[in-house]
Specification:
Layout (H helix, E strand, L loop, with lengths): L3 H7 E4 L2 E4 L23 E4 L2 E4 H10 L5 E4 L12 E4 L1 H6 L14 E4 L4 E8 L2 E8 L2 H16 L7
Antiparallel strand pairs: 1-2, 3-4, 5-6, 7-8, 8-9
Helix pairs in contact: 1-2
Length: 160
């Protein structure tokens, strides 16, 4: 691993971006921005031949420790401004997700129940799925889902 001091020796942080302070290769000179983005959309950087998420490097440079996971508050994987990064558990990080692409209702935590012919609101709390209720109106179901996310997910609640 690396220390906060070591990272400050080799990187300059500015507005969520990392810049090399040293020459690291023929095509990577001091002053150049670290701009590699992996296939999942995260900015990465190699330190001593090992790849690291830039969000972890930025967090370590500012706070001197690494939490288990780091959450991008605004869900933009390339936004490594320190004010957009926070420590999170795996569960908290999952709570702060955008609506899934395969969602059919158009609302997070809301799905149609064919049997009851109503919109159902469910939410995960402590790895368990909780049924919040059934509703005739999808907009009401969405409002209830938002309230449930606020109640159970608190600052990690993401509504869309």
């Amino acid at each position: 691993m690396f220390t906060k001091e070591y990272l400050h020796e080799i990187f300059k942080y500015e507005d969520g971006n990392l810049y090399w302070k040293i020459d690291v290769a023929k095509n990577v000179k001091a002053g150049s921005i670290c701009k590699y983005i992996d296939s999942r959309g995260y900015k990465k950087v190699k330190i001593n031949r090992k790849s690291y998420a830039q969000s972890r490097v930025v967090f370590m440079m500012h706070y001197g420790f690494l939490p288990k996971e780091i959450d991008h508050i605004n869900c933009i994987r390339t936004d490594n401004r320190i004010e957009n990064l926070r420590p999170a558990s795996t569960i908290e990080n999952g709570q702060n997700k955008k609506i899934q692409k395969n969602n059919k209702s158009g609302f997070k935590n809301v799905h149609w129940c064919k049997t009851h012919k109503k919109w159902v609101v469910t939410i995960k709390v402590n790895k368990k799925t909780i049924s919040i209720g059934n509703f005739k109106d999808v907009e009401l179901a969405d409002l209830v889902a938002q309230e449930a996310r606020n109640k159970y997910h608190k600052s990690f609640a993401n509504h869309g």
